[in-house]
């Protein structure tokens, strides 16, 4: 089936099934992630205590692990929750925020990749490049420019990491190693508010909680964020700025449905093998 | 005195007295709780370090303990702060978020109820049901449907827990075991943004900081949130969604006064004994 | 050069240079601080794990330490990051939130002042007064009225603490001990939303990341917040409240440029020595 139709069908389903998305995430954008999850139709739960993540993830339809503000305790929780999810075939999604910025972050991501199997990984180009052994130094949590295209990077990383990989940027690339979708939606204002990457991963988490087609879930999630950025920017008045943009972003996510998505998405798929 | 007039009188008083509301809460909705407290006229302080909660709560007019993201450290802080508040007759309000979802959460709530005396407890039906020994399994942090009405549950729980109990839902029930108020305000969008329950508890905390009539404080707090949900939803335009709804919710709380509340509240009181 | 022109020149520069501002801050307003930093043109990174702050701060252009919700772990991270920044001439900015409210907070601030050299310190009058040995008891995290003017307090504190000091309030005073600027912008609604003080410090952090003139950076940062409060309040409609005000505050920060700032700022400078 065409990827566009597979992804489109998920919008009604997520609202019907209301998947429980357990997220062990950072303390900067945790509220945004919970609201984005609710806006698309999921049910978020954000506990990160090692004392209860095993019991909580057993109730969940998907698990999101976000590296934004890792510490010893959250890493312990991620490992417990990740292993439990793997043993129960609950999909696990990684957002390697800031990997490449410090040796600690890079090492811990590498360790976690050995212990937990991820069905989807979403990051910007520098983060994904670093995950597959590139030596770029990320400056803080924002992306650096690379010589390699997002498309080529997504394909390589999907093969090497044996996961669906989303490289988000001006053009978002989603690859399962064999098929690759390029999404040409978005707006530069998405880089001027915090949490848009984290929220995209939360949306991918929600969609992956209702289907085994993780490639379609990743396409639906990342494109929802990029399209919402476009819609939010279009309605911005002269006297408004990034505060209003951020509110309209959640507005657009909460209004997204199959019809709106089909009308707005600009994507094509390439068969890479 | 009529509960409606007792509650109505608190709106001016909270703005005059600006009660200091110490909140040991979760990291998902902590910012929303602080802003809701400020919006109604209170002054929030959110420290949760066991090293300083004893000194901080001594300055406070009310203490709110919220279970959203409990861990060992926050539970230790809750116990210290709760005991200190009890010894000084500072009202303590419990929000048992997610109790019933994991054994850890249920056990820790049960332990805290033995160590700290709560003047008001607010939760959804599943959480309150579980607090009094019901065996429902909560799915994440959202409520399940129960066979018992919110009213009957609030009355039972108030008697068993020896506290004012608020069961929030489509109809909010507030009971002190003898008198029970039913509030028929609200909007379904309140379940589509995170933190509306936590904010309701924060508002109850603010009102309980200015009166000994905790039943009236609970009615004023929960009804303010439900009415604000109605007002926020009424003004929503076609192109707006849950992002704007969330902003308007705080707008409505900040504009709530005695007159507006008297005009909007739909409640009746039943004498249960 | 005139302080007004020195400060004005920073608005274009911060957008060109996009300084990386490492912030070890509180979990209440951390999202607001990140968004304010992005809105003015900086790049925020908020990690506070003692395991990686040394590596992270080496990449940064400025370091902000905020006392809002200190605990043992964040204090350890602040000391490591502060010493590292000092050894590399990266400016360090202190926001002593709530100092004076509990002995723990006051002692820890005093200890940190001995271990780390701060280039800029911003607080309300009670916090700054307490930092220089005043005995006022702060009630929670809000300011008390003092007999001394903000101007006199800023001058004394700047001399005693050997730092640029910002005392924010109805009139903001910024002093380096020799020169003192008084800024008469602002709106009372700034006290009705959480995080406006923290965001002001984040803005000062962003400006201090692109200049050695910390006095000008402090003036640019604090005045941006006060002017934005004015602009946000001016456009508020009758049916709007503090929720919308908070959104417009970020809007105004994101639209602030040299021309707008020159038109709006109401300040004069006094030579104090």
Automatic annotation (TrEMBL), chains A, B, C:
<keyword id="KW-0808">Transferase</keyword>
<keyword id="KW-0067">ATP-binding</keyword>
<dbReference type="GO" id="GO:0004417">
    <property type="term" value="F:hydroxyethylthiazole kinase activity"/>
</dbReference>
<feature type="binding site">
    <location>
        <position position="122"/>
    </location>
    <ligand>
        <name>ATP</name>
    </ligand>
</feature>
<comment type="function">
    <text>Catalyzes the phosphorylation of the hydroxyl group of 4-methyl-5-beta-hydroxyethylthiazole (THZ).</text>
</comment>
<keyword id="KW-0547">Nucleotide-binding</keyword>
<dbReference type="GO" id="GO:0000287">
    <property type="term" value="F:magnesium ion binding"/>
</dbReference>
<feature type="binding site">
    <location>
        <position position="168"/>
    </location>
    <ligand>
        <name>ATP</name>
    </ligand>
</feature>
<dbReference type="InterPro" id="IPR029056">
    <property type="entry name" value="Ribokinase-like"/>
</dbReference>
<keyword id="KW-0460">Magnesium</keyword>
<dbReference type="GO" id="GO:0009229">
    <property type="term" value="P:thiamine diphosphate biosynthetic process"/>
</dbReference>
<dbReference type="Pfam" id="PF02110">
    <property type="entry name" value="HK"/>
</dbReference>
<protein>
    <recommendedName>
        <fullName>Hydroxyethylthiazole kinase</fullName>
        <ecNumber>2.7.1.50</ecNumber>
    </recommendedName>
</protein>
<keyword id="KW-0479">Metal-binding</keyword>
<feature type="binding site">
    <location>
        <position position="46"/>
    </location>
    <ligand>
        <name>substrate</name>
    </ligand>
</feature>
<dbReference type="InterPro" id="IPR000417">
    <property type="entry name" value="Hyethyz_kinase"/>
</dbReference>
<feature type="binding site">
    <location>
        <position position="195"/>
    </location>
    <ligand>
        <name>substrate</name>
    </ligand>
</feature>
<dbReference type="GO" id="GO:0005524">
    <property type="term" value="F:ATP binding"/>
</dbReference>
<comment type="pathway">
    <text>Cofactor biosynthesis; thiamine diphosphate biosynthesis; 4-methyl-5-(2-phosphoethyl)-thiazole from 5-(2-hydroxyethyl)-4-methylthiazole: step 1/1.</text>
</comment>
<dbReference type="GO" id="GO:0009228">
    <property type="term" value="P:thiamine biosynthetic process"/>
</dbReference>
<keyword id="KW-0784">Thiamine biosynthesis</keyword>
<keyword id="KW-0418">Kinase</keyword>
<comment type="similarity">
    <text>Belongs to the Thz kinase family.</text>
</comment>
């Amino acid at each position: 089936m065409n990827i566009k139709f597979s992804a489109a069908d998920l919008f009604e389903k997520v609202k019907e099934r209301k998947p429980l998305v357990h997220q062990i995430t950072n303390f900067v954008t945790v509220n945004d992630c919970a609201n984005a999850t609710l806006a698309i139709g999921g049910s978020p739960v954000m506990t990160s205590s090692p004392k209860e993540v095993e019991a909580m993830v057993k109730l969940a339809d998907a698990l999101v692990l976000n590296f934004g503000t890792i510490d010893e305790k959250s890493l312990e929780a991620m490992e417990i929750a990740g292993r439990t999810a793997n043993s129960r075939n609950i999909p696990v999604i990684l957002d390697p925020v800031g990997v490449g910025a410090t040796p600690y972050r890079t090492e811990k991501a590498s360790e976690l990749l050995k212990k937990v199997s991820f069905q989807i990984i979403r990051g910007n180009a520098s983060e994904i490049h670093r995950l597959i052994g590139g030596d770029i130094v990320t400056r803080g949590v924002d992306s650096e420019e690379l010589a390699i295209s997002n498309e080529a990077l997504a394909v390589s990383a999907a093969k090497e990491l044996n996961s669906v990989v989303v490289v988000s940027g001006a053009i978002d690339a989603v690859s399962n190693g064999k098929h690759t979708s390029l999404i040409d939606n978005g707006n530069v204002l998405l880089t001027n508010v915090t949490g848009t990457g984290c929220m995209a991963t939360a949306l991918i988490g929600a969609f992956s909680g209702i289907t085994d087609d993780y490639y379609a879930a990743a396409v639906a999630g990342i494109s929802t964020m990029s399209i919402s950025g476009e819609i939010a920017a279009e309605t911005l008045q002269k006297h408004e700025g990034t505060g209003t943009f951020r509110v309209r972003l959640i507005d657009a996510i909460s209004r997204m449905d199959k019809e709106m998505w089909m009308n707005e998405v600009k994507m094509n798929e390439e068969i890479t093998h």
